[in-house]
């Protein structure tokens, strides 16, 4: 796979996942009756979503800031835990698959971003980028 393809796949998958994380963070601070019902159904309190929203924004900053590879690893790990935890919370609360399958798609996009982040690092180390 050439470096241009690696960069394109990385930036598309990263843009999608970071865009979704920012959208999720912003929506955590907007009053929404459906969102309130959902929080009650899965047993979460509003402060949990506010905390996660701040963490999501910090993760976006960490991934987009050049350098700091260890911080990027933590951001990717945090997003992974967030998405797996959210998926399981919906599953354990009895929501049908159609209500939370999108989170599984986001996990795949996140994995793609992470894999191609490392492909870019390897290409840079080899002097190809």
Topology (elements, then pairings):
Elements: H1 3-27, H2 33-42, H3 46-64, H4 69-92, H5 97-125
Helix pairs in contact: 1-3, 1-5, 3-4, 4-5
Verbal overview:
It is found in: Membrane. It comes from Dyadobacter psychrophilus. Keywords: Membrane, Transmembrane, Transmembrane helix. This is DoxX-like family protein. The chain crosses the membrane at residues 7-27, 47-64, 76-94, 100-117. The structure is a single chain. This protein is an all-alpha fold and 129 residues long. It has one domain (3-125). The chain contains 5 helices and no strands. Helix 1 packs antiparallel against helix 3, helix 1 crosses helix 5 (97-125) and helix 4 packs antiparallel against helix 5. The longest helix is centred in the last third of the chain and has 29 residues, at 97-125. The two termini are 13 Å apart. The model has no long low-confidence stretch (mean pLDDT 92).
Name the quaternary structure. single chain
Task: List segments where confidence is low: pLDDT < 50 over at least 5 consecutive residues.
Answer: none
Q: State the order of secondary-structure elements, H for helix, E for strand.
A: HHHHH
The coarse silhouette is: elongated
Q: Average the pLDDT over all residues and give the rounded result.
A: 92
